[in-house]
Fold:
Amino acid sequence: MTLDVSFLPQLTDAEHSALTWTTSTRGGVALQAPEPTPALVTTLTERLRDAQQTHLADRSVLDIVDALGRVQALWANPDFSLRRTAEDALPRLTGYAPLHVRRTLRDYLTTFRRDRLLRFLAQDFPDPGVLDGFRPSPAGGRRRARGPAVLTQVFAGNVPGLPAWDLICGLLVKSASLGKPASGEPLFASLFTRSLAEIDADLASCLAILPWPGGDDAIETAAFAGSDAVVATGSRAALADLRTRVPARVRLIEHGATVSVAVLAAEALRTDRYTETARRLARDIAHYDQQACLSPHVAYIETTASDTGVPVDVFAAAVATELAAIERRNPRAPLTLEEAAAWTSAREDAEFSTWDDEAQSLFTAGDDSPWAVSVETVNSPFQASPLGRFVRLIPVTEPSAIGRSLAGVTRIVQSAGLACAPARAEEFAEVLSAAGVDRVAALGRMGAPAAGWHHDGRPGLGDLVTWTDLEPSVDAELDLYDPDDRSGA
Amino acid sequence: MTTASHPTSHDSAALSALDADILAFIQSEDPDPATFDALALRLFAHQFEANPAYQRYCRSRKATPDRLRHWSEIPAVPLTAFKRLTLTTVPEKDAAAVFMTSGSTDPASRGRNHHRHLALYDASLLRSFRDRFLPEQSSPLGDDSTSGAPTGYVAPDGALPQCDRMRILVLNAPREQAPHSSIAHFFSTLVEHRGTPDSLHLVSDDGLDVDTALNAFAQAEHSGKPLAVLGTSFSFVHLLDAMADVDRTFRLPAGSRVLDTGGFKGKSREVTAEDLRQAFRVRLGVPEDHCANYYGMTEISTQYYDRTPLGAVPDERAKVVPHWARLVVVDPLTRTPVPHGEPGLLLHLDLANASSCLAVLSDDIGWAAGSDPTARAHTSPGLGTADVVLRGRAAGAEARGCSLALDEVLSANRTPAVPPSRP
Amino acid sequence: MLGTSRMLEGRTALVTGSGRGIGAAIARGLAQHGADVAINCLRDTESAQQVVADVEAASGRGIVIAADVTDPAAARRLVEETREQLGPIDIVVHNALAGFQFDPRGRRAAWNLSVEDYTAQVNAAVGAAHAVTQAALPDLTGHGRGRIVSVLSDLIERPGVPYPDYVTAKSALLGWSRAMSAELGPLGVTVNCVAPGLVPSTGAASGTDDHLRDSLEAATPLRRLAEPEDVAGAVLAFASDWLGFVTGACLFVDGGLVMR
Structure:
């Protein structure tokens, strides 16, 4: 069966059948998509603008939430045909283990349940009615928020499912979206839009999915020209390139790649707790093999003089053993040649570091080990992981050392997984917050952000909209012009 | 400037029996692959004993000389080892040369390759130059080996008949100005052994001397004596750009040839090998089959030339593996050979690299080309002898997900002005 | 009889008390399947050198290290020297026995044992296992190939002839092994025991008489007494990947005399 990774309900049947289609195979999955052209992209952005006017602009936000909630209900059924397609094809497309994809997808799909969407809305809009019309403002007067009419969304990466959230965000602020799926995971965006079409064809007509080669100047010029804003995920280099090509009148909202860390307080290494801590850390490391930005590159380990905790090396061995166990049920996705070379190089660098430093050690299963746990010192500048289940454990004697270690990456650090006594959570969170961390989760839950998370430390929906304020003076001063003249009373 | 003669005649008596055997093998006109197999194991045993850091690396992989049955089992050290470790069989003070990498990726840490003497290095470079670059002038280079001194390999200057020499222009600084550069040594040695006295180095502290180059080209056009122009690829780009600026082209005499090496490393704009050869043809009048590129690294002691100027010119040129080296294409994780023709990392076994490690894992990606000499078996004598197509370096993999890759973080660390993820 | 393979190639084993007897058979067996083996005995003897020769002939690397493993400092040196010469240790076999003679007639019985006799035996069994294991832990953990095997005796289950001090010590070693299997499992190390029946060819068993041997044979379903290779085979299984998912077990190697 050939899977169509595009979704173009804006085209008529005749237009659809006039497209030139190309087929490719990835991981044994046959995929097809129309040949992208600047003319096609221009047509799509124009029709998306119309669809937005017709089906989205005047629709109440709670009505949209209801529709999306019904879409989520479809996905919540394990027998839903598109979910089965996703569970079958995504592991083959991405190389991630089927069990891992099935479980993470299941957890991920629950995040757009109706109640969570409402919470997500409330995070940025205490009164979501501002998306429908003018509502009283706490500062006096009234205000209203509007999203861009048409968004171009450039998705990146091979982490399954991520584009769904971006499309949902667009719909919640009543934006139509033209989405470019990533070559690493080209499928889920089209599956999601198809499921929306089953529930609400009008809403679905506000979404178009079309793959094109990233950086194709003619196509992207057409896409940007037809859009009010561009939302882009990608590497720092890809975003820098994009910045030069998005016209000044079009807003560019970037989600650059980031790094995450874990922080383990001394109490997490207590003799009666360390194995569970290791298990949770390993789970976060194995989450999409650290390819998703939510996984830790580095785990800071608070060491104290007390002897209630296990030595760092014992903890490292426990993490390695957990990673070995995970490898048995969820093997690491195959690395590209470049990744494998970088991974090996980092592993051997770590090995050489242990030679002249008793404080450093390396736990692997030999030269072709599918994981590595490297115990390092805090003295060197922040070093990221080559990904692919490679973690650096760095003992620190005080929380402030974590902040110093993160100094070089303040603007690119994202999540922190925390394992500490509840009473100390804020102490660590303060240090992390000052170091630029925008999300602190419990260790073991790093891969599942809560609804309403400020992605990249910013309001996810709030960043999409612009506000119109109807100032208090309008209410106070304009009585003058009220035909029912009360001014002289 | 004219290069001063360099005292390259090595004290042949100082060569160990092993070095002498390797030297004889490099110079052999009829090399037996079995000799490579035996020498590789002997050299490994020597390096294991005399190179403590390497011994440690091997021991942790449980590879010891008494256990190895074939050179394919010799642990290859990664390039990072040349930076992180003192990887040598000879104390630094006793080394005739210590070549260093240019440190283009991390100035703080440069790879260093020690050479007790340069007898093997020079024999390797002269032999490949003869075999691959000057093939039609192939009166045996073994002028001295045929003169009855089996361990002395380099004839004193002047012993070569003049017909084996050419005027050589080098787009690189002479050895004296870059004592730790293997490329500088390479070019200077060629000038000394293969160049006529009017050969020139055209790069100094003042940069590339374009005028002298153009004069030399004009002279050659006039005299009809062929030229050999050697240099780094980026220097050629600078020269060609300068020639384009003043709109100068030459038709160098028949028999003239060009040899370039190395990448661009940000020192010039990037040019493909095909475009470079095209420019050599257009600007210098040197046909493509007289233009060659060689692949080498500071960490080894052998160069791999394009399979040219022999015969037809394929679009994508493969590098030839000389008989004292093996180039195995391996999976980076398992270090085992990938199927013939599939891409992998290039693993070098180089008998001329006697003072550090003969087995070196590069971060260059390539694949074996042509017919498969091993025909299935991994340990057959043909392993690593096939031509290899070079694709480039594996460094700097970009993450496929939204997590930052190692190198991106490195550059973020270095550049304080990282743009915020949102404007 | 144990065959050859490359199953344990690249792994390093340390076998305490392997200069002769059961330990020597274990060392040979490990080498025949590819491991490098450190042979430990109290004194470097001709017999130990022969074991090294056999190990080398099996294309493994063998070394002899004389050390009294009941001395913690000596145990540490033993581990360090093994690591130095053969690389990180993957497999530790606790086989050393404090000078003990199986002698049904001349044995020390309840009425003439002193507490010091117990202490000596427990120290030789548990003390040595502890000291060697602790020193080797950094090598054993974190890669999934770490294996600890202790050689006990089926007397712990069926004390046909009561040797209270010896049986107490070997039972203690079983308890130690089980605790260790729980302690080290999360670090990727398996810890198991092999409990042989009487192995008449060993020096320690030279005091057993024909009557005892005959009656044990008659009571044994497989109709004979144990040989060193029987024990070595069981140790090999625990040392290999075949029983890589078994830990905390005790395997009786006595022809079915003890069934559990």
Remarks:
- The radius of gyration of chain C is 17 Å.
- Chain C touches chain A at residues 10, 138, 141-145, 186-188 (CB under 8 Å).
